[in-house]
Amino acid sequence: MSATGASTRAGARSAARRGGPPNRAGAVAARVAPPVLFGVLFLGVWQLFVRAADIRSFVLPAPSDIWSAALDNSSAIAKAAGTSGLNALVGLVLGVVLGVLLAALATRVPVLGGAIAPLVAALAAMPIVALAPLLNNMYSPLSSLPRREVVAISAFVPVFVNVYRGLARLTPVHRELMRSYAASSTAVLRTVRVPGALPHFFTGLRVASSLAVIAAVVSEYFGGLQNGLGSRITSSVGATDYPSAWASVLGAVVLGLLFYLGAALLEYLALGRRAAPLT
Fold first, then answer.
1. Residue burial 228-241, b: 16+ Cβ < 10 Å; e: rest
2. CA–CA distance, 146 with 224 (Å, rounded to integer)
3. pLDDT band at 20; cut points 50, 70, 90
4. What is the pLDDT of residue 98?
5. Burial class, 35, CB count within 10 angstroms (exposed 0-12 / middle 13-18 / buried 19+)
6. What is residue 7's predicted lDDT score, i.e. its pLDDT?
7. CA–CA gap between residue 165 and residue 4 (Å, rounded)
């Protein structure tokens, strides 16, 4: 009986090994297929609607026209995306660093946390379209600093809120355990609070990565250097070249997806199986 049981268990393990990768691949396909199919269906309906209703391009270009404009201006769009991407990346790093540091400080000093919270709420309510022109007027027209500051402010809010929430979560069991070890506040922060706050940090980073691209592109609408995606959109609209404007919007969408996937990759490398799924 024991030999039969061992053989059965060995066969089960072998079948699990053979069925493991296909099952994982099937799970990934099940998550990816619905949005891909919906996107294809949406583009097809869009194309048919524009052609059947004879919609003019200044109202709504067809996806085929947008794709043609993207191919014709691919080098210019890529160069503009590089400029906007650099502004978004620099501002994102500044916002993340500032958000993490202030969240850690607010956790250590609760009175300071209570004072910072209303300021963060005010920043969250401040629209980019109001902030960007004010910062542009404070610097040289040839400076990229105001755009990066707009991005940093936009990225700071979700990172601070999520990291502060994660650091403040300390269960009574952990609190009593660390107290029994006579652990200092720094030791509690390093061994309990920081590991527990990592999922919250990456949640904030995901949100901030998308907001960084949005803020970088929108801030380019209000003067300054005319070398980013936002500037290309406004110049194309001014020249009534609406397919090119939509092609630049497509470039901004791709740039935002790259930032989001980069944040998701960092989360996976740091957390492994604890990382949240992409969809």
1. bbbbbbbebeeeeb
2. 9
3. very low
4. 94
5. exposed
6. 47
7. 54
Question: Tens of pLDDT along 234-270?
Answer: 999 988 899 999 999 999 999 999 999 999 999 888 8
**Which residue has better confidence, 13 or 218?**
218
Q: Which residue has the tokens 């030791």?
A: 187
Looking at every residue in the chain, the average pLDDT score rounds to: 82
Q: Which residues of 36-59 are buried (b: 16+ CB within 10 A; e: fewer)?
A: eeeeeeeeeebeeebeeeeeebee
Is 80 exceeded by the pLDDT of residue 64? yes
